[in-house]
Amino acid sequence: KPFDVHVQAEPLTRFEPELDAAGWSTLQAQATRARALLAGRTFWNVSSTARGGGVAELIPRLVAYARGVGVDARWLVLTGTPEFFHITKRLHHALHGSRGDGSPLGAGEHDRYDEVLRDNVEELLVLVKPGDVVLLHDPQTVGLAPALATAGARVVWRCHVGCDTPNAEVARAWEFLAPGLAAARLTVFTRAAYVPPQCADRAIVIQPSIDIFAVKNQPLAPQVAHAILATTGLLRGTPGAPEPVFTRADGVPARVSRGADIVRLGAEPAPDTPLVVQVSRWDPLKDPAGVLRGFALLLRQSPDLRAQLVLAGPAVTSVADDPEATSTLQDVISLWRQQPHFVRQRVHLACLPMGDLEENAAIVNALQRHAAVVAQKSLQEGFGLTITEAMWKARPVVASAVGGLQDQVVHDVNGLLVRDPGDPAEFAGAVRSLLEDPERAARLGRRAHEHVRAHFTAVRHLTDFVRLIERLDA
Ligand code: UDP
Predict the structure, then answer these.
(1) Torsion angle, alpha carbons of 442, 443, 449, 450, to 10
(2) ipTM score of the complex?
(3) Hey, which of 182, 203, 215, 225 would disulfide with 199, CB 3.0 to 4.6 Å?
């Protein structure tokens, strides 16, 4: 059975001080339009996990603002068997053009996929009324489309992933998803290049966004960020440090109290050690092993470089739809074990506590704010929220020139792009260039912040949603 995740409404007025008069009145007009378009209807979002990953990050923030303007927006999370999530993870890889574990995606898998979705759809059909808009997220949910459409819902499928050079794996995924896809009135992709031919007549491009008011992005004094990281065991503590506090979404202050689960040799880095940080789910497509290889190469080239690497991700069993996390982390740990002592000493593999999502967000916030360089060395990436989060914090970023990352980062203007994600030397060179030239790094970071303000906040995203609903009504 799917479950309903309650999302507290957030007032749109929060954005007023961020916008000029014209921008604010446009946003208000969009809100009025959204209310009118969805009067008497519910706007459902359906996804496959309530925690961990970009989709679980994105949905509640948009639902919150939609509710804040009087739209009845809701979030449902489907439930599935381990076998279902194994199949959908394989599909996730295939849409990225990757073979994953190479397991089949044939008729038998399709039957098992449909079976789990049939159980979920029964409950959905009780909730969803004719005329409601149902936004299904990612391949886990596409198979819900036919039953929902038959019941009179207006179904949209939003795909958050893609592949720059579609191959046989991508074709296999589209074939698997075709029956569900046929029932979607509209499809949404993060970039035009991801739209497959069968969706060309009903596709729109909407890039994701971050919520600049979320706990993850709230301003933190550097000393407080230190204190939070010291509490989790990611930095050495300092005497007389302030309390590791953050502000919860409801405005109440709270303390970070949990430690991360960290694999490392030796002590925590000192607070003034420059950190290179990648925060990602433990997914091979995020290439944590490649980051480690690139960083190890950098240290071999420059053994005296004062820098350390933190690879951080969620506690491995916490992400319902990601069964690969444990094995991916194990692979990184094995690679770490093979490194020479001087490399192992300067690399920290951290699983962040996920029991309290706001506390987790505060830790990620502190880590991103404290980082000297934030990396996202993905092999494919529909859109990397982690990079947008870091750019908002005015951090210099190094991202692979793949997928949506290429649309987020303008090379040498607001960050650096690494052309060949398979080349550790290029990654090492980019990181070095930022560590060795803090002024340039700061300049890129300042422009990064402005770029996010202009393109990747909820203001732009909500406007795109109005366009989507208008198109559905046309
Ligand atoms: N994230 C997190 N805690 C973690 C690891 C990741 O909160 O331990 C968040 C991260 O801050 C970002 C999202 O998960 O908001 C990942 O989104 P992204 O688009 O980068 O990648 P995805 O996981 O969707 O592939």
Answers:
(1) 160
(2) 0.99
(3) 203
